[in-house]
Amino acid sequence: MSKIHFLGGEFLRYCSNHLINKIPFHSIRLFFYRHFLGLEIGNNSYIFMEVCFDSRRNFCMGDNSVINQKCCIDNRGRIEIGKNVSISPEVCIITADHDLQNARFVGRIRPVFIDDYVFIGMRALILPGVKIGEGSVVAAGAVVTKDVLPYTIVAGVPAKLISMRKKDLNYTINYKRFFS
Questions:
Q1: Which of 153, 158, 123 lies closest to 141 in space, CA to CA?
Q2: Superfamily holding 3-164
Q3: Vertex 80, ends 125 and 15: CA angle to 5°?
Q4: Is 5 a catalytic residue?
Q5: How far apart are CA 20 and CA 42, in angstroms?
Q6: For residue 29, what are the contacts with CB-CB under 8 A and spacing of at least 6?
Q7: How far is residue 82's CA from residue 65's CA, in Å, rounded to a whole number?
Q8: The pLDDT of residue 1 is above 90
Q9: By Cβ atoms counted within 10 A, which residue in 37, 75, 87, 160 is the most buried?
Q10: Per-residue pLDDT, 177
Q11: What is the average pLDDT across 162-171?
Q12: What is the number of other CB atoms lying within 10 angstroms of the CB of residue 179?
């Protein structure tokens, strides 16, 4: 990769996280995310203000999903978000970390998959390599270190099963706000 290409990508990321994500008009942010960052964002999906992305591309969000304000989306590894997913404010989704047992502290990248009808509560932390199953709920403040089975409700640090969710989910998220 040439130095100019690298700097161009870094400049776009800077613009996204310090300028574009503060524009109070979703249509402008959405245009930038799709056409300049190369993010795949479904129909009727909404990304609120002050959401930060760590990379260009490597991001796919299904229809009728929402990412609330001040979320940190580390899409250096791939992130796939399904349909009708609600991600609350200040959630962090991480796809990269370091091998703490490696003498060279080598970096690792692992994708995160979030299936349809998932709800993630405020300030939850989703760690690399995790799959969150269809219809599941991650409680506020939970730290998800391993896969979450479909239709389960998890909470705590680390996140553990606390309950089950009904399987007959058939709603459409349509959560838009002006100047958000």
A1: 123
A2: Hexapeptide repeat proteins (2.160.10.10)
A3: 75
A4: no
A5: 19
A6: 20, 21, 23, 47, 49
A7: 7
A8: no
A9: 87
A10: 78
A11: 95
A12: 8
